[in-house]
């Protein structure tokens, strides 16, 4: 196949019938999932399925009894030539009453089915979504940054929460139809086993075409998911408050909307082609079924005229044949649908089974406590890229010391922090904390020791207090801790002026949400880092870029006061904030090119001195 998506076609594994059946392997897991979600509802579904499956044959049989009883009563009535009485009509009417009861029971069972299905749908949707989100929490940052993986996640979230129930509904539907069919077969085989065969042969072609087209539909869904993701992204950009400013000012609306439409047009053209092919074939092959039915119809009629069947039997066989055919084609369509659901579920399980990095250690204390942080010849290349971003980094930071990282945009400063916080592991070399490799540390303990604010910190659409609380989940709602952290992060003054103080909702997503200025948000993020009272490593990546000069001075005064006995790492492009650090590293293109104190670096008269003078000149 020359298509660029050939590997996906292969992955969908639809080569022949064995491929087709191999995809039913998720049915059992879907059933187990539904069973775990609610046993009561699953049992209820099974019971209603059974009742709704058996009763149609009973109704057909009662129909035969009615017709035959009517014929007999009519003959009797003509013979006896007497007026109609209760006694003469009751033998027929009781069958009518019985049939009414059966039909009422079928309706009850069907109601029961749909009610239980809708309850189960809600429960199951929630359960699967929670599974997806829980799994997301165990994945590494690198996995999220991998676009193929991200596709899987998007696909899982978009479709899979409804698929398990759909699969189970179809399984039960299939069972129900199978039960009906078996009971019809019991009746039909008395007429002729050949009639059964005709029934089967008539329905088979539709089934085969359904199976083929479900596979096609899935492959379409699968390979187009990058496009669907782009569509979702454009929707977000065009309709979200945080992007709408630029969309308006740059006049991006029509441009993006056109791109959105173009994607739709491509997808729609493919959908249309598939739908038309699916339905044309469905119709043509369905004709075979109709042909089979009318063939059998003629046969039954001839047999009745020949006196081999009673009128009641004729009615029954016709009904049984018609309903049997409907049940059979419904079963076969259900199998096709189950196949499709299985394909979608394969995607969900592929996501859920994504291997999790098992590399969290167990250490809660290092081999030589008090040694601080050491980088030993650390190099790092981002997954999926070739160029190393950091090369042979050596550094040592002891408790009570401060370190500043200086360097051009893209030189690797933030990456160094990502390695320290174990969002990634070094490609070469090792990072030690208190004499032990970070990989040996228990991740939770390690992260508890680090308070960090990244440049691209998160702006949660939560009350301002909780925006601080996220810094320490154990104190998420602890107002006293919020206040202490806000004081250290110099956010207290403006928070207290907000209408509801620490309980003021932030962001625009929810009612009465208040938006903050860039500098205010930065103070919130800084205070968040201070929530980690246990943390003895404090990392600030451009913490004051959006602050005014007075605010910045205040932040650093607090910082120095708070930094005693701690290890602090500061990334900044402002030399005024960097100069007080005990150790300054100048990073260029992933390598440390200079190191020392402010004074020693100025004396050295290298890159640092040059950049410092450049910036100082700017202020003159
Ligand atoms: N997730 C990622 N995947 C691949 N490459 C990345 C990723 N994040 C950053 N990079 C690349 O790594 C290099 C270093 O980025 P980093 O964010 O560490 O720079 P920085 O020194 O912090 O820059 P700045 O001063 O602009 O914040 C850049 O060339 C960037 O393109």
- The helicity comes to 55-70%
Q: How much strand content do the residues show?
A: 5-15%
Shape: elongated
Which fold name fills CATH's third level, the topology of the largest domain? Answer: ABC transporter transmembrane region fold
Q: Please tell me the overall pLDDT.
A: 85
Strand count: 10
Number of helices: 23
Rg, alpha carbons: 36 Å
How widely separated are the two ends? 67 Å
Largest sheet: 6 strands, mixed
Q: Give a list of the ligands.
A: adenosine-5'-triphosphate
* CATH architectural grouping of the largest domain: Up-down Bundle
Could you characterize what this model shows?
This protein has 620 residues and is an alpha/beta fold. The chain has two domains: 24-353, ABC transporter type 1, transmembrane domain (ABC transporter transmembrane region fold, Up-down Bundle), CATH 1.20.1560.10; 373-618, Rossmann fold (3-Layer(aba) Sandwich). It is 65% helix and 9% strand. The protein contains 23 helices and ten strands. It has helices spanning 6-12, 16-22, 25-37, 39-80, 86-138, 141-145, 147-159, 163-188, 193-223, 225-239, 241-249, 253-305, 311-352, 413-420, 443-448, 464-469, 479-488, 492-497, 518-530, 549-562, 575-578, 598-604, 607-619; strands at 373-380, 390-397, 402-407, 428-433, 436-437, 450-453, 537-541, 567-571, 583-588, 591-596. Strands 6-7-8-3-9-10 form a six-stranded mixed beta sheet, with helices on both faces. It has a four-stranded antiparallel beta sheet with strand order 2-1-4-5, covered by helices on one side. The protein is elongated, with a radius of gyration of 36 Å. The chain binds adenosine-5'-triphosphate. The site of adenosine-5'-triphosphate (ATP) has 13 residues, from helix 14.
């Amino acid at each position: 196949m020359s298509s660029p998506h050939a590997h996906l076609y292969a992955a969908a594994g639809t080569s022949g019938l064995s491929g087709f059946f191999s995809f039913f392997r998720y049915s059992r897991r879907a059933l187990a999932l539904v069973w775990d979600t609610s046993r009561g509802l699953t049992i209820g579904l099974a019971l209603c399925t059974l009742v709704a499956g058996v009763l149609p044959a009973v109704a057909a049989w009662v129909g035969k009894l009615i017709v035959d009883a009517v014929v007999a009563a009519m003959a009797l009535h003509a013979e006896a030539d007497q007026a109609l009485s209760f006694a003469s009509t009751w033998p027929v009417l009781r069958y009518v009453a019985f049939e009414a009861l059966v039909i009422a029971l079928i309706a009850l069972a069907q109601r029961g089915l749909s009610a239980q299905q809708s309850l189960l749908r809600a429960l199951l949707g929630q359960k699967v979504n929670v599974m997806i989100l829980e799994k997301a929490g165990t994945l590494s940052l690198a996995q999220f940054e991998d676009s193929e993986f991200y596709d899987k996640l998007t696909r899982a979230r978009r479709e899979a929460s409804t698929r398990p129930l759909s699969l189970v509904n179809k399984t039960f539907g299939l069972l129900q139809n199978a039960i009906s069919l078996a009971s019809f077969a019991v009746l039909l085989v008395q007429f002729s086993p050949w009639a059964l065969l005709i029934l089967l042969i008539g329905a088979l072609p539709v089934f085969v075409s359904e199976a083929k087209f479900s596979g096609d539909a899935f492959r379409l869904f699968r390979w187009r998911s990058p496009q669907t993701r782009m569509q979702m992204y454009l929707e977000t950009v065009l309709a979200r408050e945080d992007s709408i400013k630029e969309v308006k000012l740059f006049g991006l609306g029509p441009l993006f909307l056109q791109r959105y439409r173009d994607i739709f047009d491509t997808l729609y053209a493919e959908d249309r082609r598939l739908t038309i092919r699916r339905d044309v074939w469905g119709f043509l092959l369905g004709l075979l079924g109709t042909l089979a039915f009318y063939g059998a119809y003629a046969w039954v009629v001839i047999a009745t005229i020949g006196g081999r069947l009673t009128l009641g039997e004729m009615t029954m066989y016709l009904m049984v044949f018609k309903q049997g055919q409907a049940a059979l084609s419904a079963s076969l369509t259900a199998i096709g649908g189950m196949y499709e659901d299985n394909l979608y579920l394969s995607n969900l399980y592929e996501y859920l089974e994504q291997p999790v990095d098992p590399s969290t250690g167990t250490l809660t204390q290092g081999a030589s406590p008090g040694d601080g942080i050491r980088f030993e010849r650390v190099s790092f290349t981002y997954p999926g890229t070739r160029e190393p971003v950091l090369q042979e980094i050596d550094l040592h930071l002891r408790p009570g010391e401060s370190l500043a990282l200086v360097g051009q945009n893209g030189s690797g400063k933030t990456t160094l922090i990502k390695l320290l916080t174990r969002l990634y592991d070094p490609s070469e070399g090792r990072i030690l904390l208190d004499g032990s490799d970070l990989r040996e540390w228990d991740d939770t303990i390690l992260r508890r020791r680090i308070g960090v604010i990244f440049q691209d910190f998160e702006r949660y659409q939560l009350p301002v207090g909780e925006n601080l609380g996220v810094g320490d989940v154990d104190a998420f709602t602890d107002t006293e801790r919020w206040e202490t952290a806000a004081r250290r992060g110099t956010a207290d003054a403006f928070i207290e002026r907000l209408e509801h103080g620490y309980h003021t909702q932030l962001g625009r997503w929810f009612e009465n949400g208040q938006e903050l200025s860039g500098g205010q948000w930065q103070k919130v993020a800084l205070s968040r880092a201070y929530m980690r009272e246990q943390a003895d490593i404090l990392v600030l990546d451009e913490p004051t870029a959006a602050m005014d000069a007075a605010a910045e001075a205040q932040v650093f005064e607090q910082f120095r006061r708070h930094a005693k006995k701690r290890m602090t790492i500061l990334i900044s492009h402002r030399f005024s904030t960097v100069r007080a650090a005990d150790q300054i590293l100048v990073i260029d293109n992933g390598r440390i090119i200079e190191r020392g104190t402010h004074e020693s670096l100025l004396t050295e008269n290298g890159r640092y001195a040059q950049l410092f003078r450049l910036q100082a000149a700017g202020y003159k």
